[in-house]
Structures are given as C-alpha cells and as structure tokens.
Specification:
With 181 residues, the chain is of the alpha/beta class. It is 39% helix and 17% strand. It has one domain: NAD(P)-binding Rossmann-like Domain (Rossmann fold, 3-Layer(aba) Sandwich), CATH 3.40.50.720. The longest helix has 21 residues, at 88-108. Residues 171-175 and 177-181 have low confidence and may be disordered.
C-alpha cells in the first residue's frame, strides 16, 4: 500500500515520467501535465498513477489535486531558451506564474515539501563545471530568469510560510532524492 501521496507536475515528460514510475513503487502518485511537451505514452504503463490533464497556470486545479499531498515535485515548465526568447510572456506565465501557483497550492493544502527542478541556465555562460550553488546567478534568457525567480520564490516560501523547499539542478537525481526510506 502506498505510504504517501506525492504530486509530479510535468510528470508526462521524460524525466517526470521516470520519476513518477520510481515513486509509484512506494507512494500514491498524481501526475499533472498539460501535454504541451510531455506525452501520455510516457506514463501509460505505470500502475497506480493518477493522471490529471491540466496546467500549473490553473490555481483551482492545483488546489484540488494537491489535497492530502505530502510532497510536490515541480518539474513542469515551458522549456527551451530559444522558445523563451521568441515568446517571453508565455515563458513567464508557465515558469514564474506557474511556479508561484504550485507553491501557493502546496502551502494552502498543507504539503510538507516542494522540490523545484531548476536549471544551470541561471548561471549564464559561466564555464565552471560542475555548477555550484555558491556561484553568482547571471541569467541570459527569459527561461533562466524564470528558473532563478522560481528559486527565489521557493526560498521565500520556506522562510515566511515554513513550507520546506529544495531546488534541484540535476533532475536525473530526483528519483534517488525522495524514494529512499
């Protein structure tokens, strides 16, 4: 029997679907995805996963879906630096407003933690590898601005609302992050 309810926004994408599959081995998983970049086929084979087709830009949908959720993995985004340059308003709506909606819904529904998938794009052209959190952000695209804004919002929600948040850069490490124990 799954022990906790967890949410995966963007869960029909490549990384999100792999995370949802791994999490479903121990938890009750709800995937929220508008299928703008994800594919239903990525999660169709996963047993015991509830799928909600919808957008993180819909606060009502999030508040309904997040009821009784312990943890939210927030991977949903409008990816692509070039796409954000071509349409900065759409990028902001998904990546900034959407992230704020996720944090508000998590707070209002009593979730214990939000794990936000950020991006090394926040460091611009900095050649140092691996990227480190003590490096100064230097976003060079609307996409990067959206990701660093999401990090700032996550920190603020931790500080003023006591909602635990973590920002993860290497999304491939997400399954190990929460499935242990």
């Amino acid at each position: 029997m799954p022990s906790r309810k967890v949410i995966v926004t963007g869960g029909a994408g490549f990384i999100g679907s792999n995370l949802a599959e791994e999490l479903s081995k121990r938890h009750s998983v709800t995937v929220i995805d508008d299928l703008s970049t994800g594919r239903l086929e990525n999660i169709a084979h996963i047993k015991n996963v509830e799928f909600i087709k919808g957008s993180i830009t819909d606060p009502g949908l999030l508040k309904h879906a997040f009821r009784d959720a312990e943890c939210v993995f927030h991977l949903a985004a409008l990816p692509s630096v070039q796409r954000s340059v071509d349409d900065p308003l759409a990028s902001n709506d998904a990546n900034v407003t959407g992230t704020l909606n996720v944090l508000v819904a998590a707070r209002d529904c009593g979730a214990k933690k939000v794990i936000f998938a950020s991006s090394s794009a926040i460091y611009g052209d900095e050649p140092t590898l691996p990227k480190r959190e003590d490096m100064k952000p230097y976003p060079l695209s609307p996409y990067a601005v959206g990701k660093i804004t999401g990090e700032y919002y996550a920190r603020v929600f931790s500080e003023i609302y006591s909602l635990k948040t973590d920002c993860i850069y290497s999304q491939m490490s997400l399954p190990d992050y929460y499935t242990k124990g």
